[in-house]
Amino acid sequence: MNIAVAQSGGPTCAINASLLGVFRHATKYEEIENVFGSVNGVEGLILDNFINLCDIILDDDDVELIRQTPSTVLGSCRYKLPNFKTDSSVYETIVENLKKHDISAFFYIGGNDSMDTVMKLDDYFKANNIDIKAIGIPKTIDNDLPITDHTPGFGSAAKYVATTMQEIIRDSSVYSSKSVTIVEIMGRDTGWLTASAALLRRNYEIAPHLIYLPEVPFSVEKFLKDVREAQEKYYAVVIAVSEGITLDPAEINDFQSGKSDNFGHKYLAGVGKALEKIVARELGCKVRSIELNVMQRCSSHLSSKRDITEAERIGGAAVKTALDGYSGRMMIYRRVSNHPYNMRIEHVDVREVANKVKYFPVEWINKLHNNVTEAAIEYCMPLIQGEQNFRMKNGLPQHYVLRTALPHHKREGKIE
Q: I need a surface site. Which of 99, 113, 152, 207 has the fewest CB within 10 A?
C-alpha cells in the first residue's frame, strides 16, 4: 500500500515536524511502499499533484533541515470542499487520483478547517464503501482545536511572543517620558497566544501590564481607564491585545480590509493601530502599536524543542492509527500531569473537532478582564521548554526548500 500526506492552513514552526513524523514512521512498516506528499494541501489531491517523499528525503541531513524549517514544505491551501451530497464531482476526482497511486490512507495536517476536509472525505469514503483512511493531524498556533490539550505549533509561537514581548519591554523602558506600547498578537476567536505573553512573570517581569482577550467583552472606555491607572504606576505601559477583540466598527473600519477567506473568516489585523489612535487622541502621550503579524508563526529560531518533538511524535502516531483500521479520526494530546509534565497521544472522532472552537478559559481571565491568572502560566509553561540546535550557514539558520514542489510545477488543472 501507499499513503499520502498534505499540509494545510497557516504556517507554523512545527508542521514540518509532523510531516516528518508521518514519513519516518511510515518507512518502518513493510506494508507501506511509498509515502506521497500532496502539493498545496487538498488541491494536490484534486490536481493529481503528488511527489514521492521517499525520493527527496534521502538522508539524516534532509531530516534535520526539514525539522528546523518553518512553514509548509509541501505548500498549503485554504480550499473548502463542497457537500458531496450536492456536488460529488471533486470527490470522484480525488478518489480517482488516490487509486491511481494505490493510496490507501491520507493524512491531513492542519487546523479547524482542515479537520472539516478530513470529515467530509471520510463521510464520502464511507458512504461509497471506499477503503481509504482519512486521518487528521492537528496544527495551529491559535491552540483553538477542541479536545486536544494543545496543538503543535502553539508552544513555539508562545515562546516567540513571550521572548519578543520581553525585548519590547526593554526597548520601551529606556526613556523617562510616559509612553504606551500596544502589541497586537494573533488570535481570531481565542486569546491563547496573547495570554502567553504573561509567561514573562516567571522571569519576574511585571509587563505586559494589561492583557486583553476576545473571550470577554471589550470596552474602549474601560480600556482607557485601565491605561490611565497603569500610567500612575509605570511610566512605560506595555499592553498585549488579541487581534480578535471586538471594537466599535467606527474605530477600526479604516484599518481592516473587511475581506474573508474561503471559509468565511475575516482577515483581521488593525486593532492595535486603532487603539493607538484612540490613546493618542484621549491621553496625548507617546504611543505606538506593534503588530507581530506572520513572524509569530514562523520564527523557528525561537521554536520550542518540546513542541517540535511532540509534533513529530503525533505525526508518527497517526500512521499507526490508520494501520490499526481507524478513519475519520483526529490525533490529540492528553495531558497527564504538569509536575513532571507528561502527556499521551490519543485520537478522537474528527466530527468532535471540525468547525468547532476551543476558547481560552474565562476562569483564567482576571475579574477586571485586563489580565490572566497564574493558571494560564501554569498551562503554557511546559509547552515552551527546550531549544533546538540549528544547522547554520553563513551565520544564518539553514532552511529546506523543496523547489520541485512549488506551485508553478503543478500539473495542468484549475481549482475553482
A: 99
CB 286, CB 178: distance < 8 Å: yes
Distance CA 316, CA 26 (A): 7
Q: Which residues are designated catalytic?
A: 142
Q: What's the CA gap between 376 and 139, in Å, rounded?
A: 20
Three-state secondary structure call for residue 164: helix
**Hey, how many other C-beta atoms are within 10 angstroms of the C-beta on 295?**
14
Least confident span in 146-150, 200-204, 247-251: 247-251
Given a cut of 70, is residue 406 above it in pLDDT? no
pTM: 0.92
**Each residue's pLDDT tens digit, 92-108:** 999 999 999 999 999 99
Using CB atoms within 10 A of its CB, is residue 231 exposed (0-12), middle (13-18) or buried (19+)?
A: middle
> What is the rounded average pLDDT of the residues 38-55?
96
Which amino acid is present at 367?
K
Cβ atoms of 148 and 333 within 8 Å: the answer is yes
Domains and CATH numbers, the chain: 2-152+300-355+386-409 (3.40.50.450), 157-298 (3.40.50.460)
Q: Are 29 and 322 in contact (CB under 8 A)?
A: no
In the sheet that 210-212 helps form, which strands lie side by side, from edge to edge? 210-212, 236-242, 179-185, 286-291
Amino acid at 369: H
Residue 172, CA atoms < 13 Å, CB-side half-sphere: 26
DSSP track, 105-156: EEEEEESHHHHHHHHHHHHHHHHTT---EEEEEE--TT---SSSSS-TTHHH
Instruction: Give 75-93 pLDDT, tens digit per residue.
Output: 999 899 999 999 999 999 9
Exposed / middle / buried, residue 224 (Cβ in 10 Å: 0-12, 13-18, 19+): middle
The C-alpha atoms of residue 118 and residue 41 are separated, in whole angstroms, by 11
412 has pLDDT over 90? no
